[in-house]
Amino acid sequence: MRLSTSMIYQQNLKSITNSYATWQSTGLQLAAGRLVNAPSDDPIAASQAVRLNQSQAVGEQYATARSSANSSLSTETTTLDQVTDTIQSIQTLLVQAGDGTLSDTDRQSLATSLQSYKDTLLDLANSKDGNGNYMFAGYKTDTAPFAEDADGNVTYVGGSTAISQKVDSSRTMQIGDTGSKVFMSLTAGSTAEPDGSDSVANVFDSIDLALDALNTPQDDADDTTAAAYTASLDKATRGMSNSLDNVLAVQSSVGSKLNELDTLDSIGTDRTTINTARISDVLGADTDDTIKIISDYSQQQVALQAAYSSFTAMQGMSLFAMS
């Protein structure tokens, strides 16, 4: 077959172009540290890498969700610690109020302190989180969950459903508690009233019972008034004890969720490590692959230089000088 000058020129140019493309592709592999950088390099491996990267992205989203949940629950547990301290202080005050040697002036002083504790407890019940949302309002985060009327009665006006968040592919977690559950509920096994009447579930109602008793004059009181005072204090004491048990139960639940989030984070970290290793394997980025890429790069560079030299030499021959 007779070859024209033009055909020889095109063949040599094509050889250089192909050699350069191959060398450039290997150079990209070397720079990226992996064999597969485009679907055309290995369609199957590229498809697997896409799925693994999607899994990684989802894992990162769940990790962010867990971080948010951890922040919410940590804030709640800090507030519940303060609630517990306040209730215990009230219990101590009620014990003092039962001292039969107190005067009305002494009881008024205790009433003032108790009112202060009630105000503190109401402030805690209407606490906001770091984002300015009411912590115990459920999904009604923009409204204070507890309202106090002119007579001092406190009612819950927040949402009825606690906020939940998906923290892993198969786990949706409640990341807060409604105020009704924390401040107006009873746990199983709560102390019953001796007369069989309903136990006081609303912690603020228990405080109000004690306030009413302390604000009722007892100096020179008759037996009926004195008995009513003692009965009110006793009922308030039982109510505060039940409320403390309930808050502690909620606190325990929050602690369990925080522990679970730590476990899920650990699992998520392990999953990320495994997926990263799998992506590395699929795309070819281990030490052996890197050595091979370097070797190929060097060989292809030599081949390209040889092609350049051959092309340059052939350009100087008479065949290329012919028209």
TrEMBL record:
GO cellular component terms listed in the entry, alphabetical order: bacterial-type flagellum hook; extracellular region
Keyword Secreted: yes
Signal peptide: none
Pfam families found in the cross-reference section: Flagellin_N (PF00669)
Residue ranges of every copy of the Flagellin N-terminal domain listed in the record: 4-141
GO molecular function, one term: structural molecule activity
InterPro entries named in the record: Flagell_FlgL, Flagellin, Flagellin_N
Keywords: Bacterial flagellum, Cell projection, Cilium, Flagellum, Secreted
Residues in coiled coil: none
Subcellular location: Bacterial flagellum; Secreted
Any GO BP annotation: bacterial-type flagellum-dependent cell motility
Similarity comment text for this entry: Belongs to the bacterial flagellin family.
NCBIfam families membership: flagell_flgL
Protein name per the record: Flagellar hook-filament junction protein FlgL
Organism of this sequence: Acerihabitans arboris
Gene of this entry: flgL
